[in-house]
Amino acid sequence: MLKPKTPSQLAEELGLSLPYVSGALKELEAEGLVECLTPEEKVGRIYRRTQAGEEVVRALDCTQKNYSRGGEKTLLKTYLQNSKSCS
């Protein structure tokens, strides 16, 4: 997430369902990797990565040489898909 985005924007960009992305964001928020900038909103909440989230993305980028540079969407999509199967 280069700029803050809504779950709907992420779902559309990643080709994932909105409920799935919303659930993943809750998990990432609980881990301190993303934060909600508009927690008072019921719809259209805006999320961004925390400093810890930025560090995770940098670490993944460094270790995942088989992904193209700037493959943030691929890395996030892979994480979201793997987190579902590992839960």
Mind explaining what this structure looks like?
It is a single chain. With 87 residues, the protein is mainly alpha-helical. The protein has helices at 7-14, 18-30, 51-63, 72-86; strands at residues 34-36, 47-49. It has one domain. The model has no long low-confidence stretch (mean pLDDT 82).
Describe the structure concisely.
Helix content is 56%, strand content 7%. It has a two-stranded antiparallel ribbon.
Helices and strands, with pairings:
Blueprint: H1 7-14, H2 18-30, E1 34-36, E2 47-49, H3 51-63, H4 72-86
Antiparallel strand pairs: 1-2
Low-confidence stretches: none
Mean pLDDT comes to 82
From the spread of the alpha carbons, the general shape counts as globular
* Strand order of the biggest β-sheet: 1-2
% residues in beta strands: 5-15%
What proportion of the residues is helical, as a percent range?
55-70%
Rg from alpha-carbon coordinates: 13 Å
The first-to-last residue Cα distance is 23 Å
Q: Helix and strand string, N-terminal first?
A: HHEEHH
Q: Would you count the extended β strands for me?
A: 2
Tell me the number of structural domains.
Answer: 1
Please give the largest β-sheet: 2 strands, antiparallel
Q: Counting H and I runs of at least 4 residues, what is the number of helices?
A: 4
Q: What structural class should be given to the helix and strand makeup? A: mainly alpha
